[in-house]
Amino acid sequence: MRQGMGTRFSTRVVAAFVFAIMVAALVAPAVAGAAVPAPTIALSTSLQATAKPVTISGSMGKAYRGKTVTVQVRKPGRAYWSSATSKDTTLSSLGRYSIRYTPKLAGKFYFRVRYNATPPKYSRTVSMTVKKGPSTKTEVFLSSTTSTRDSGLFEALKPMFLNDCPEYTIKAQFVGTGAAIALGGTGDADVLLTHSPSQEVAFMNGLVDGKASAYRGKSRYKVMYNDYVLVGPTANPAACETSETATSAFGKIAGTSSTFWSRNDKSGTNTKEKEIWALIDSPQIDAAASTTATTVFMPWYKASGTMGMAQALAASNDGASGGYTLSDRGTWLNAKALGLTKNLKIVNEGDANYFNQYSVIEVGGARNWEGAQDFSQWIRTPKAQEIIRTYGVSTYGQALFIPNQGSW
Q1: DSSP 35
Q2: Beta strands 89-90 and 68-74: pairing type?
Q3: With contact defined as beta carbons under 8 Å apart, do 112 and 124 qualify?
Q4: Global pTM value
Q5: What CA–CA distances, in Å, run from 288 to 49, 60, 94, 117, 179?
């Protein structure tokens, strides 16, 4: 009798324990998979006579301590949201957050908070009006490939950006993509506009030229594309044909020892050129194991110094020492319109290897993180993309770049 009662008691205890576990699982917090609550949000003020720091705070509850949230801001006149801080904000032991944000212009600001769940959970939106903005502007440091300058595109985009984002001035440096990314890696650029996917991916992983960098890319987006063209003397001594493959045309240049001018500057164009050389099996070409290290050692290959795209075209156009070179189509059309390529013509184009994608990269930890985001966001807006789509049509009879903003 006692044994039966003991068995029944043990069974009841086990059943109660299992039931308790089931109940606990059902009422577990969002972290365990139940509905995720949206974080709360509040401002220390909703009206400012002149721009000054504002505190943005809120909570998700103790169950979310140690998790992160992203505080976002939509500025006056903007259709897009940006992060209010360069890093996500960690919730305290009580599941709370608090940040300081300084508005850089007058108008109505909107704020919201996102919890980094999938899909993200947003808080309600709160607003603040600033009657008078700061009297000073902050400088955005842009590092870009020379083709955006040499094609004239940047001069078309710059005044539009400054008009739409009046809290900034912009300082631009135009160098090869490799050098542009290096400036981002040292923190000397806030945002990059480049066209070398392999180097860009490395920078997103914290590498510049194969070495760890102090700064890395935080966000990378597609902006536009065009293509490369192989140009050479009008006499075309290598007998390159317009419709043949890129490797065939490059192979003919090597086979005839025709002069080729390399930018030799680790730019996107230079990287693409080396990638094409690496595809060719020729005794005239020394293809190293890495395509980025590919070098050509014959005297017809001119790579004794570094040069920009306009310089490479000028060297190829020289009547005495002219030759072939690889150019992005935008710079080629601009140089042609300026009468700088009278001795040159396109000798090969249309190959898939000539595709040329441009990206914008926001540098993590940048001096002007807010400005980096604003430029990145702005150049991907319909307005900026339309400027890119139509740029060059009236002057050159065709667009120099094709907009294709989007994520990688």
Answers
A1: P
A2: antiparallel
A3: yes
A4: 0.84
A5: 64, 55, 57, 45, 22
| Residue of 52, 163, 42, 166 lying closest to 103 (CA atoms) | 52
HSE-up of residue 360 (Cα within 13 Å, Cβ side): 26
Question: Do residues 197 and 377 lie in contact, with contact meaning Cβ atoms separated by under 8 Å?
Answer: no
CA pair distance 267, 275, nearest whole angstrom: 12
DSSP bridge partners of 108: 129
- pLDDT single digits (tens) 172-221: 999 999 999 999 999 999 999 999 999 999 999 999 999 999 999 999 99
CA pair distance 3, 303, nearest whole angstrom: 95
Instruction: Tell me whether the omega of the peptide bond preceding residue 166 falls within 30 degrees of 0, making it cis.
Output: no
Question: Is 313 in contact with 325 (CB distance < 8 Å)?
Answer: yes
Is residue 315 within 8 A of residue 321, CB to CB? The reply is: yes
HEC profile for 77-136? CCCCCEECCCCCEECCCCCEEEEEECCCCCEEEEEEEEECCCCCEECCCEEEEECCCCCC
Copy the structure tokens of residue 64: 């979310």
**C-alpha to C-alpha distance for 37 and 30, rounded to whole angstroms:** 7
Distance CA 292, CA 296 (A): 12
